[in-house]
Write a structure and sequence with these properties.
The chain is α/β, with parallel strands linked by helices and 379 residues long. It has helices at residues 24-29, 40-57, 71-82, 96-107, 125-134, 156-163, 214-222, 233-240, 253-269, 271-291, 318-329, 356-370; strands at residues 13-14, 63-67, 88-93, 111-116, 140-144, 146-147, 152-153, 169-173, 192-194, 208-212, 307-311, 331-332, 344-348. It has 12 helices and 13 strands.
Length: 379
């Protein structure tokens, strides 16, 4: 058997759409003594994680917990809980992740009504409300709050206000928004939201924080068809919330420690202060890009501070620029997902990287690489 190498990856500055770099104190949390997932001391940690998640989501009723899955698992769990095969789901989409909601809802067997906007535009609230008026039987209206494929923020607060007196559940993808921009689950009328750990929360990938309203919990209790066992939110609540805990599955204990540390960091900083830090970093980056003549994909007024999508200038090989940034500066930025859509770069300033210093670092690296003739397209 050949000698196996110890994993020792090259350090990177992760300025792409996620994951982001992890703060040392969160890495240190994962070095703590491993507890069993049925240990009462670990259950006390779960209680704290659940409580902190409720605070970060601004959920004062209902329940918040974290799935042993990435954000896509959080989406799949929500659809399995709230939409039965044959029921109608209205999905607003203007990018890759809205399309993912469409795909997974169809796999669930839902009758999907798509409300589309062009990449770089937000999904108009009035279009979603109109779709509900034409499909009053819809069980769910779903939208992405912060789309990392385009850098666009959808106005969930407006949509929630319009849906408040309807029977339709509001399902929101908060993968890139939680911990970076305001999310107010109770005030906005969000029935189910899901996120991830590796973006603005600043922890490693591997868990999906979710939150449910009491209305959503009742819908789950009334569901005629059982969801997949692993994503059965009633059973998960009995483990996460009820005491004594009812065993469901073996949690990734060290990932829970990391999430606990990340949430402590978020709340220690303060939610408004954290949102402002992300806003300042994003504004600084956009200003520097405008000065250099770059064009942003997202429409003004709906641009995310934590994820900026830049159109690749004519005559530039976007992939070559990414490769040179990685080779020369150890900096990762993103490209279009699966090569679809317009030629763009996606720059993320999330979590510990949401600083003006990081914005200046990535812009200086872009300046350096764009001076390299090797990233220019041959005439």
């Amino acid at each position: 058997m050949p000698e196996l190498n110890i994993v020792n990856p090259t350090p990177r500055r992760l300025f792409g759409p996620g994951p982001t770099n992890v703060a040392p104190e969160i890495v240190d949390a994962m070095r703590a003594s491993l507890l069993g997932h049925l240990d009462s001391e670990f259950h006390a940690i779960l209680d704290e994680v659940s409580s902190m998640l409720g605070t970060v989501y601004q959920r004062h009723s209902g329940v918040s917990l974290a799935l042993s899955a990435t954000g896509t698992g959080g989406l799949e769990a929500g659809l399995a809980a709230l939409v039965e095969p044959g029921e109608t789901a209205i999905v607003g989409t203007a990018g890759f992740f809205g399309d993912r909601i469409v795909e997974l809802a169809r796999r669930r067997g839902a009758d999907v009504v798509e409300v589309r906007a062009a990449p770089g535009r937000h999904v108009p609230t009035e279009a979603l409300v109109d779709a509900l008026g034409r499909n009053p039987q819809a069980k769910v209206v779903a939208v992405v709050h912060a789309d990392t494929s385009t850098g666009v923020r959808n106005p969930v607060e407006e949509l929630g206000a319009e849906l408040r007196d309807t029977d339709a559940m509001l399902l929101v993808d908060c993968v890139t928004s939680l911990g970076g921009i305001e999310v107010d689950a109770d005030d906005w009328g969000i029935d189910y939201a899901f996120s991830c750990t590796q973006k603005c929360l600043g922890a490693p990938p591997g868990m999906s924080p979710i939150t449910l309203s009491d209305r959503a919990r009742q819908r789950i209790r009334d569901c005629r068809r059982e969801p997949p066992f692993y994503f059965d939110l009633e059973l998960l609540e009995r483990y996460w919330v009820d005491r004594p805990a009812a065993y469901h599955h073996t949690l990734p204990v060290l990932a829970v420690y990391a999430l606990h540390a990340a949430l402590r960091s978020v709340l220690g900083e303060g939610l408004p202060q954290r949102w402002e830090r992300h806003a300042a970093a994003g504004a600084h980056l956009r200003s520097a890009l405008h000065e250099r003549g770059f064009e942003l994909l997202a429409e003004p007024g709906y641009q995310l501070p934590q994820l900026t999508a830049i159109r690749v200038p004519e005559g530039i090989d976007g992939r070559a620029v990414q490769a040179r940034l990685l080779e020369r500066h150890g900096i990762e930025i993103g490209a279009p997902l699966n090569g679809a859509g317009p030629a763009i770069w996606r720059i993320g300033l999330m979590g510990v990287n949401a600083t003006i210093e990081c914005a200046e670092t990535v812009v200086a690296a872009l300046d350096d690489v764009l001076d390299d003739e090797r990233v220019r397209v041959a005439a």
